[in-house]
Design goal:
The protein has 2 helices and 28 strands. By secondary structure, it is mainly beta. It has a domain of 128 residues: YVTN repeat-like/Quinoprotein amine dehydrogenase (Methylamine Dehydrogenase, Chain H, 7 Propeller), CATH 2.130.10.10. The protein has a 4-stranded antiparallel sheet, with no helix packed on it. The protein is globular. The relative contact order is 0.11.
Length: 356
């Protein structure tokens, strides 16, 4: 074959390869509390692999910025499993602390919430006899505060901690990366900390709007923060200085919350209402309630923003929702109590963000 023909053939081959890569929609990773991590091929929207995380009770998870590693919080052994995404094998387990839950990544560091004083089972309903008994018990106990363990992924170890409130839940970063914002469900607060030092800057009490703050999310432009109130059936809207601007009614027990990439719509997973709710991000008017499954907590957009994938634990499924039609188009079954879900390439979602 002449050199010219070889060059043409190579160019065609390269073009086909580029097109194939451009068409690749990526993967989603689903943590299953009664199993490991499922891998979903976003090109086919089917499960293609199961990852053994070498521990029980996986919950929070995050992918490094380069997509090479998946970090998964494993409740039962108080650690995170570091997984090579090329082989789906655990390469290291790093101790963090009792009851690790949320995982967020910024640069070469993983931020993992854990709860030394947390008790098993769901929290009691505010005002109930069980809630009053728990409050009395907490008053009598020296309750250890929750913490955010900070793992240096290059060193492969926890290097420091930030002290939160009792039963820290959601973790978010400010747009400029200088502040860490966390929700503390047991004392009904949102706290703001200096990321470098952990110093507490501000505490926002939520009780007048609702109890048990769970999800927390910054807007793509960094000017607004949202926090869901599980026992208030609301989410609150805060400005960049964390002043509460308003409370917005939701379905029963809202948890995961996220903006879309353009910051035009807000999505909320309302657990007991069994809906994914969509709101206008400017007026906060509800656009639609999308019927879903049982105990749906966390969700992610696909990297191309065409679908939302919603993990529904008690339905043992991931629901696929078309973002234009706002309708469920598919269920991906055979999961074992799915808890959270993220993608690579990174997407907007209740556990991650595509916005730098």
């Amino acid at each position: 074959m002449k050199l010219t023909h070889l060059m043409i053939a190579a160019a065609v081959s390269m073009t086909l390869g580029i097109n194939a890569n451009a068409a690749d929609r990526g993967k989603a990773y689903v943590s299953n509390q009664d199993g490991g991590v499922s891998v979903i091929d976003l090109n086919t929207l089917t499960s293609v692999a199961d990852i053994d995380v070498k521990a029980e009770g996986p919950r929070g998870l995050a992918v490094t910025d380069d997509g090479k590693f998946l970090i998964v919080a494993t409740r039962e052994n108080g650690s995170v499993s570091i997984i090579d995404t090329a082989t789906n094998e655990v390469v290291k387990q790093i101790p963090v602390g009792k009851n690790p839950e949320f995982v967020r990544i910024r640069g070469n560091f993983a931020f993992v919430s854990y709860e030394p004083s947390a008790k098993a089972g769901p929290p009691p309903t505010p005002g109930s006899d069980a809630a009053k008994a728990a409050e009395k018990e907490n008053e009598d106990d020296d309750q250890e505060p929750a913490r955010i363990g900070i793992i240096d992924l290059k060193l492969g170890k926890k290097v420091r901690e930030i002290i939160g409130g009792p039963e820290t839940e959601g973790v978010e970063f400010s747009k400029d990366g200088k502040q860490l914002i966390i929700t503390n469900e047991a004392d009904n607060s949102v706290t703001v900390h200096i990321l470098k030092t952990g110093k507490l800057l501000k505490t926002i009490k939520t009780h007048e709007y609702g109890d048990r703050p769970r999800g927390i999310k910054v807007s793509p432009d960094g000017k607004t923060y949202l926090a869901t109130l599980e026992f208030g059936n609301k989410f609150i809207v805060m400005d960049k200085n964390f002043k509460v601007l308003r409370a917005v009614d939701t379905g029963v027990t809202p948890y995961g919350i996220a903006y879309d990439r353009k910051g035009e719509r807000i999505f909320v997973a309302a657990n007991k209402a069994k809906t994914l709710e969509v709101y206008d991000a400017k007026t906060y008017a509800k656009i639609k309630d999308i019927p879903t499954g049982n105990r749906c907590w966390h969700f992610t957009f696909t990297p191309d923003d065409k679908e939302v994938l919603l993990a529904c634990g008690k339905s043992n499924s991931v629901f696929v929702i078309d973002t234009e039609k706002l309708e469920v188009t598919k269920q991906i079954d055979d999961k074992k109590t799915p808890w959270g879900i993220v993608t690579y390439p990174k997407s907007m979602g209740s556990l991650d963000t595509a916005i730098k």
